[in-house]
Amino acid sequence: MSNGGPEIEQLIQLLARLPGLGPRSARRAVLHLIKKKDQLMVPLSAALDRAVDAVRTCEVCGNVDTRSPCGICSDPRRAESGLLIVVEDVADLWALERAGVGAVRYHVLGGVLSPLDGVGPEDLSLDELVARAPQFSEIVLAVNATVEGQTTAHYITDRLAGTGVKVTRLAHGVPVGGELDYLDEGTLSQALRARTEL
Amino acid sequence: MSNGGPEIEQLIQLLARLPGLGPRSARRAVLHLIKKKDQLMVPLSAALDRAVDAVRTCEVCGNVDTRSPCGICSDPRRAESGLLIVVEDVADLWALERAGVGAVRYHVLGGVLSPLDGVGPEDLSLDELVARAPQFSEIVLAVNATVEGQTTAHYITDRLAGTGVKVTRLAHGVPVGGELDYLDEGTLSQALRARTEL
C-alpha cells in the first residue's frame, strides 16, 4: 500500500468521517483536491481555517453563526411576527430558512428525548426555551414526525402549559409533489382527517 | 436566507465541489464539522494545511506523493520485476496498489486520447513513457476498457513498437463475484474466447 504519504492518508481518513462520504469517495475527493490544488484545495484549506476561528453557537437560540447572538436573533424585524419555531437541529433551522418561512425566530433543542440513547430533558435546551417563551405569541414545534420527535413535542407542550403561550405543530399531510401510493398509511389518514375545503 | 455567515456559506460552496457531494450533502457535512469542531474540523483544517504544503506530483511516474520521485519510484525492490503498469489516473494506480499487484512500477498517463474532448497525444505523458520504456522488460496497459481507453492502448502500442519492449494489457473476463446474466455480451464473448483450462 503506497497511497502517497501519511499526509494524504490522514486527509482521506478525516474526510471519510464526513456524512455522505465513505473511504472510497473520500479517496476520490482527495485526488480531486490534489488535481485542483489552486482552485479548490488551497481555498478550502483557507475557508476551513477561517471557519474554525469564526464559527460559534448562538447563546440565545443555538444556531451556528459567526457571531452570538446570531444574525437571526439580532434582527429586530424577526421579533414582530411573535413566532418562535422550535427545531431539533441547526440543519432543520437552515431547511426552514431555505423554504423562506418568513421573519420568525428559532430555538434549537439540540436533539430529541430518547431514553434508549440516554437523552433526557436535561440534555436539551428546554429551560432556555421556557425562559424565552413569554417573549412570543406562538411557539411552533417543528420537530421531526418520528416517535421521539412527537414524544418531545408532548413533553414541551406540558412544560410550556404554564406560560400561557399558544403552542402549535407543523401540519401533517401529503408532501407537495408526492404520490399517494408511495405514502404510508399514517400520513394518508392524517391527510384525510385534516382535509381542507377547496 | 441566513445560513450563518459568509465563512460557513463559503465552506459549503467549496465542499459542494467535491465529487460525491452536492449542495445538500455539503451543508450536512459542514454542520457535522461544526458539531465535531475539536475532533474533526480542527484536525481536518490542519491536515489540509499540511497536504497543501506537502503534496507534489512525482516527476518520474505522475503519482501524487509528498516527495518526488515518489515512494514507488524510489523503492529499488520495485525495479526487480521489470514490470511497468500504465494507468490513466492516480486513482487507478491506487486501486492497483490496494489490490496488491506486487512490486511493480507505474506510469500515469493523465487521461486518455479523446478527440471530442480535445485531448490529443501531446496532452498525455507519452514521451515520458517512451523514454522510460527501455528500463522495463514488460509494459502492461491497464487503461479502462472504454472506447477511448482502447484507442489509447492501440496508440501506445504503436508508439512503443520501436522500443522492443513487450506490451500487454489486462485480461478481459467475468469479474470475480460477478453473475453471468448481469454481464454485457462483449464481456461474455471475450471471457469465452479467453477461456482457460481447469
UniProtKB/TrEMBL annotation, chains A, B:
InterPro entries, per the entry: DNA_Rcmb_RecR, Rcmb_RecR, Rcmb_RecR_Znf, TOPRIM_dom, TOPRIM_RecR
GO aspect biological process, one term: DNA recombination
Superkingdom of origin: Bacteria
Zinc fingers (C4-type), renumbered ranges: 58-73
Domain Toprim: 82-175
Record key words, sorted: DNA damage, DNA recombination, DNA repair, Metal-binding, Zinc, Zinc-finger
Keyword Zinc-finger: yes
SMART domains: TOPRIM (SM00493)
GO terms assigned for molecular function: DNA binding; zinc ion binding
The keyword Cytoplasm is assigned to this record: no
UniProt xrefs under Pfam families: RecR_C, RecR_HhH, RecR_ZnF, Toprim_4
Protein's job: May play a role in DNA repair. It seems to be involved in an RecBC-independent recombinational process of DNA repair. It may act with RecF and RecO.
Similarity annotation: Belongs to the RecR family.
Protein name per its UniProtKB record: Recombination protein RecR
Lineage, highest ranks first: Bacteria, Pseudomonadati, Pseudomonadota, Alphaproteobacteria, Hyphomicrobiales
Name of the encoding gene: recR
